[in-house]
Model the fold of this input.
Amino acid sequence: MKNIRTAIIGAGYRGRYLITLLQKINLFDIIAVSDISPNLSEIISQLFAGEKIPKIYNSGTDDYRRMLNENTIDLVIIASPWHLHKEQTIEALKSGCHVAIEVKGALDIDEYPDIIHESRQNKKQVFPLENTLFRNDILAINNMIHAGIFGRLVFLQGGYRHDLTHILIDQTGNFGVQNGSESEWRSKYYKTENGDLYPTHGLAPLCMFLGINHTDYIKSITSFSTKPGLGLHACMAKRNGMKYTDIQQHTFRMGDVVTSILQTDSGAQINLLHDTTLPRPRSLNYEVQGTNGIWNAEKNAIYIDGLSPFEEWEPEDKYIEQYKHRFWQQWESEALRYDGHHQGMDYIMLRVLGEALQGRENYPATLEDMATWAAVSPYSKISIQKGTSIPFPHF
Ligand SMILES: NC(=O)c1ccc[n+]([C@@H]2O[C@H](COP(=O)([O-])OP(=O)(O)OC[C@H]3O[C@@H](n4cnc5c(N)ncnc54)[C@H](O)[C@@H]3O)[C@@H](O)[C@H]2O)c1
Done:
């Protein structure tokens, strides 16, 4: 079967990493790359040293359209800043390509419904690049859930608990440095929004576990926020030596910790955290609790009633090995060899994407799933603003 003719929009931190993995999978040919960076040619020459160099499009913000017009492309991978995803995805769908999009929260309630409409209209697929779905432990826990080991699922938690102050604030205490980097495009939301900006890593695996959009549905969201800006003010004061009170003239809307409680039709509850401006080690905070046992990813531990010693956590390893997913049985060694940075999950994700496009695998998440995860962003903002529970949309 012919290789997948692939084009990339956005060759920043994430786009470049995806390129290095795609080069290792013999299902993709990267034929073109678009990015506004004046250094794109140099970046691509380095990444493709000794290989066929893809065509480069970097003459301004709309040059990706020229790339779509001038080439026959099967798949467009979008790894640009958040505010560009919708327009670029829709343009790629209209030009007859499948799309794989990097993850983020929806910027408004219409964003993904509009993309779903365009995907159906053009009969082209959109694949969410939600890499956590492809983690070895997540896929094994999913197998255990389907084998009934945890019983009926009751309570799940997850979150994006990642101190981003190293991105949002520079070393001398300036917030949102204006250099076109993630610092600039990500930081502006902290001044204007209060909600869960980045829900998909924490939520997507939990939705897979619960069969959301298949056998269960999220019916409501209730979100809460702590006082805005405390962590950002403290970090700025620490870095620029100013008094904390002087720093407070910077106004932020984003609470340091946003908690969303999602309730499902079946009666399960998901607690989701967005926690990005306080000092802490990184965590996705996963826990899954059912009528017969519990998994806690932070502890790397499992407790199964009747199997584990009474009220004692067991190391998860033997279970993860026993219930290893077939993706990992097939591709583990190459995944770990090429994708040390993300413990193999990005490699497995791209491998499954390639296999799915060639008709040999089912990709385990749809655009409608992405719309569901991403809807937490706008609906958490509405819930916080109104101080009430909000019905959750179905897609
Ligand atoms: N799944 C993960 O683990 C993971 C990790 C990091 C980032 N991400 C996601 O990847 C996406 C990109 O994040 P990043 O950290 O690489 O950001 P980044 O700022 O490093 O890269 C974005 C790139 O897009 C380019 N760009 C800007 N405007 C453009 C345009 N009009 N046309 C083409 N290119 C344009 C920029 O020049 C930059 O090189 C985001 O959605 C982010 O949430 C996902």
User: Anything to note?
Assistant: The pocket of nicotinamide-adenine-dinucleotide is lined by residues 9-15, 34-37, 61, 64, 79-82, 84, 102-104, 131, 181-182 (CB under 6 Å). The chain has two domains: 4-128, 133-391. The domain at 4-128 is CATH 3.40.50.720 (Rossmann fold).
